[in-house]
Design a protein that fits this description.
Blueprint lengths: L23 E3 L40 E3 L20 E8 L4 E10 L4 E17 L7 E18 L5 E13 L14 E17 L2 E14 L9 E15 L4 E14 L6 E13 L3 E10 L2 E13 L2 E11 L5 H7 L3 E3 L13 E12 L5 E18 L7 E21 L3 E15 L14 E12 L2 E10 L14 E11 L5 E8 L7 E3 L2 E2 L4 E9 L1
Length: 540
């Protein structure tokens, strides 16, 4: 085969290290670089030359070494265009460690011919350990989490610039809540089933016009009840299309259409959303402008962007956007915290709502002070309706409600890479959160971080020997009036890997929470103490 490319395989296998730190996954060094993403509906909104540093979940994972920490993330429906370019041809990874961690995964991609590419990915991850309760350190919780995943992808190359992409996947999650003697919920044997299917057509050019489209279906089943009287099913249908017309080398007109329908069993009210995004794009050598509008059943919001090139190494940028964001769904709530329950407890009174950003404004500067280094400094403000929140009194589960909210933020992100010898990433964020609560008497956001430092480094020592380190610091609002205040996240990790010269084999060892700190992986659920994972990865 002249070239074999592996299509993206949606979900990494969920083996979450005990005590809510939910665990480690193996990457193949310099080849496989996955991104953990939420399950979002397909977006057609164009970007205005904006690159941002994506923050990892509470446990940061080093991207340039064979081991990553993994936060529970449901299967997503659609992958980015670049996901088909950098993944390994074929690989097998096996690992195990303290806290009962196990890991097994294998993937293979095949070029059937020059137009047809196929891949498959399957594996098992899990842990079983004894963890302290967040609300009472004298109580123990027999924490376990196992995930089995099968995903497949297909790409048909229509021509050199366009493709038909099809992805499908199924995931089974088996886990348990921390329980009390008086707990009325069946929290000891949770079972979530997730499935997704999507088809996407990348832009096809015909004259001055170009068009793209996509559609997907996602399924989520919660077998055992938390706040619901019985098991509950969730179905999500999404569709989108975009049409662009070129006005020449410097400008174009685009219009995007989006649709999403979320439905439930058990009498829970779902919702349907549709949107139009017309906009005008113009650029010359130094300036790029986007002028547009979001129009949907949830409201109207701006869709504006501006970038000015100060020099070949520096850009000023600003954008003012809005519209429907990540839908509030069972899948996405599970991604934020798998140990949740709906508020109120009466399922008949529950109405799921989509989050709508009335305003999301940001301005900043992005520049390269030295070769191979980029510094991005920006600040902004968000106004959101029906943002998903967790109640400030977790016990056996984290109650979920929806509230209008604001956020003021400042980011300062630095990345540096010197050949394959050194990589450095420093993501720094400061947030001020507020909510206008609709269900409980609070205006405080206790589970979202105020200061969020996300640092990592990797260095090749000699030959195939590589060392890495990562550090995560998060602070949270401290309110003594509530039954529970989330402790600060302080997590130091380190890794060591060695790739053999003559064999496609990498062996590794990684430690996490090396300072043995007491913090939450998820709101109300503690992370494990110091833990170690070791294993090997083979590529073919």
């Amino acid at each position: 085969m002249s070239r074999i490319r592996t299509t993206a395989l949606l979900t990494l296998l969920s083996v979450l290290p005990a005590m809510a730190q939910m665990d480690n996954v193996i990457d193949v060094e310099h080849v496989y670089k996955p991104e953990i993403k939420d399950a979002n509906k397909i977006s057609i909104q164009p970007e205005v030359n904006a690159t941002t540093v994506q923050r990892s979940p509470v446990d940061y994972a080093i991207t340039s070494v064979p081991v990553k920490n993994y936060a529970i993330t449901p299967i997503w429906a659609v992958k980015g265009d670049n996901a088909y370019e950098s993944e390994p041809r074929r690989f097998i990874t096996l690992g195990g460690g303290t806290e009962g961690n196990i890991l097994a995964r294998g993937a293979a991609g095949f070029e059937l011919n020059e137009k047809n590419l196929f891949n498959i990915d399957l594996g098992l991850r899990g842990h079983n350990a004894s963890v302290e309760r967040s609300t009472d350190s004298n109580l123990k919780w027999d924490s376990r989490f196992y995930s089995t995943t099968v995903t497949a992808g297909y790409e048909y190359k229509i021509n050199s610039a366009s493709s038909l992409l099809i992805d499908a996947g199924v995931e089974s999650q088996v886990f348990n809540y921390q329980t009390t003697e008086t707990d009325e919920f069946n929290t000891d044997k949770q079972h979530n089933t997730l499935a997704s299917f999507s088809a996407r057509l990348t832009p096809i050019q015909f004259g001055k016009f170009s068009a793209s489209a996509g559609a997907g279906y996602e399924f989520f089943n919660q077998k055992y009840r938390t706040s619901l009287s019985k098991n509950c099913n969730e179905g999500i249908i999404t569709a989108n299309a975009a049409l662009a017309y070129s006005l020449g080398n410097a400008s174009e007109i685009k219009i995007g259409f989006g649709f999403a329908n979320v439905s439930y069993s058990n009498g829970i009210d779902g919702y349907s959303n549709f949107s139009l995004r017309p906009h005008y794009l113009w650029h010359d050598g130094n300036i790029k402008i986007k002028a547009g509008l979001y129009v949907g059943n949830l409201g109207i919001a701006p869709d504006l962007g501006f970038t000015y090139r100060l020099s070949p190494k520096a850009d000023l940028y600003a954008d003012v956007t809005g519209g429907e964001t990540t839908s509030n769904t069972f899948r996405n709530i599970t991604a934020a915290n798998p140990y949740w329950a709906l508020m109120p407890n009466d399922a008949a009174a529950v109405e799921m709502k989509a989050q709508f950003d009335q305003l999301s404004a940001r301005a900043g500067i992005r520049f390269a002070p030295v070769k191979s280094m980029e510094l991005d400094i920006n600040a902004g403000y968000e106004i959101s309706k029906d943002r998903m929140e967790f109640a400030p009194a977790p016990d056996s589960y984290a109650p979920v409600f929806f509230a209008d909210g604001n956020r003021l933020f400042v980011n300062a992100d630095l990345t540096y890479c010197y050949k394959d010898l050194l990589s450095l990433r420093l993501a720094n964020q400061f947030n001020i959160w507020s909510i206008d609560d609709k269900q409980i008497d609070t205006e405080d956001v206790l589970w979202r971080p105020i200061l969020d430092l996300d640092w990592s480094a990797s260095v090749r020592i000699v030959g195939g020997l590589r060392a890495g380190a990562d550090f995560r610091l998060q602070t949270f609002k401290d309110e003594k009036e509530y039954a529970y205040t989330r402790p600060a996240t302080v997590n130091l990790g380190a890794s060591l890997s060695y790739t053999l010269d003559r064999l496609p084999l990498t062996v590794y060892v990684k430690g996490s929470n090396l300072l043995n700190q007491d913090y939450d992986k998820y709101f109300g659920y503690k992370a494990p103490g110091m833990n170690i994972l070791a294993g090997a990865a083979i590529t073919f």
